[in-house]
């Protein structure tokens, strides 16, 4: 797996945050939050949006992935 972190961002957390290409990349530490604008920057360079959409390093957009609820 290729490391997609930018040259200026390196993780100093223990354990190290998951890479942006890892399936669990949303588990990385928030390094900058702008909840009033609806987004947060993770240590691995991923931008999370409040609608669950994402912007990965390199400009790749990920559509929101909302959970479907089963009818009771």
TrEMBL record:
Residues 1-20 are annotated as: Disordered. InterPro entries: DUF5999. It comes from the Bacteria. This is Uncharacterized protein.
